[in-house]
Design brief:
By secondary structure, the protein is mainly α. The protein folds into two domains: about 180 residues, 3 helical TM bundles of succinate and fumarate reductases (Up-down Bundle), CATH 1.20.1300; about 55 residues, no CATH class. The chain is built from eleven helices and four strands; from the N terminus they run αααααβααββαβααα. A four-stranded antiparallel beta sheet has the order 2-3-1-4, with helices on both faces. A hairpin with a 5-residue loop joins strand 2 and strand 3. The longest helix has about 30 residues. It is elongated, with a radius of gyration of 23 Å. It starts with 5 loop residues before the first helix and ends with a helix.
């Protein structure tokens, strides 16, 4: 007699293979977080967005970066999907709990990982709404134009050039006219001017609102919990978390986790307090 069990219908991928994939993708996403947090420190420069907008321009226009962006989203979805799949299959393989509670060091952290991951996904919706959805045109935000490209149009579109100069703010080195509104964007695009998102002024505007600041601080706290347990889990998955290296991994994990989360938090708080 064959049991009618949904577990039997799931694709046959060994648990260890799923764990390795989750760990590898987690490592990739962790390094991206470090990169993202480091780049965000440019927001603290009072240069009218010169450096940060140049960085965003580079990230948004180069083909290789665009391909990596697709890979990042794929890694994020695959990491989350595999982690949930692994948790479900493990639960189905052992439907009855242990008679005595486990006392292993990583047990509590492992249980938290799925829930903190789900919370991170919920917070990402807020983050995408504030920034990424502006980039793809789903949400209105702040915008900028490259002054060099704008000046090329001065002979043919003098009114559009004058409009941009009057409506926007010139960056420190004069490479960008920024802090344009969605209405300004519509006028300039109608004249054929290429307009890009201005994430510098957008971030500084968002992080002046108290409830948004609180929401992001909650977001970073959840990320801290997820990284705190996930960092060591990556090494454990690849068999590197043992008596010889465990202490060093724990210290490195603490430094990495606190470093990343403090960089994110510092930007939000300093902007909120006008620094």
């Amino acid at each position: 007699m064959v049991e009618n069990n949904s577990y039997m219908n799931l694709p046959k991928i060994h648990s260890i293979s799923k764990k390795i994939l989750v760990g590898a993708l987690g490592a990739f996403l962790s390094f991206f977080l470090l990169f993202h947090a480091s780049a965000n420190l440019l927001i603290l420069r009072h240069d009218g967005g010169e450096w940060y907008n140049a960085f965003c321009h580079f990230m948004g226009t180069y083909v290789i970066v665009k391909v990596l962006e697709i890979g990042l989203f794929a890694a994020l979805l695959l990491h989350a999907g595999l982690a949930i799949w692994l948790a479900i299959t493990n639960k189905m393989a052992r439907p009855k709990g242990y008679h005595k509670p486990q006392r292993s060091k990583t047990h509590t952290g492992s249980k938290l990982q799925m829930w903190t991951g789900i919370l991170i996904f919920a917070c990402l919706i807020m983050h995408f709404t504030d920034f990424y959805f502006v980039k793809i045109g789903w949400v209105k935000g702040k915008y900028m134009v490259n002054t060099e490209e704008l000046m090329k149009m001065k002979a043919t579109q003098p009114a559009a050039v004058s409009f941009a100069e009057q409506r926007g703010e010139l960056s420190a080195k004069g490479n960008w006219i920024a802090n344009l509104t969605a209405d300004d964007k519509a006028v300039l695009q109608e004249a054929g001017v290429e307009v890009e998102p201005d994430f510098y002024h957008q971030a500084r505007e968002k992080f002046k609102v108290l409830y948004i600041v609180i929401a992001y601080l909650v977001f970073f706290t959840v990320v801290w919990f997820h990284l705190r347990h996930g960092f060591a889990a990556i090494f454990q998955t690849f068999g590197l978390y043992n008596y010889k290296y465990s202490r060093a991994i724990e210290v490195l994990g603490q430094i990495f986790t606190w470093g990343v989360c403090l960089m994110f938090t510092t930007v939000v708080l300093l902007v909120y307090f006008g620094l």
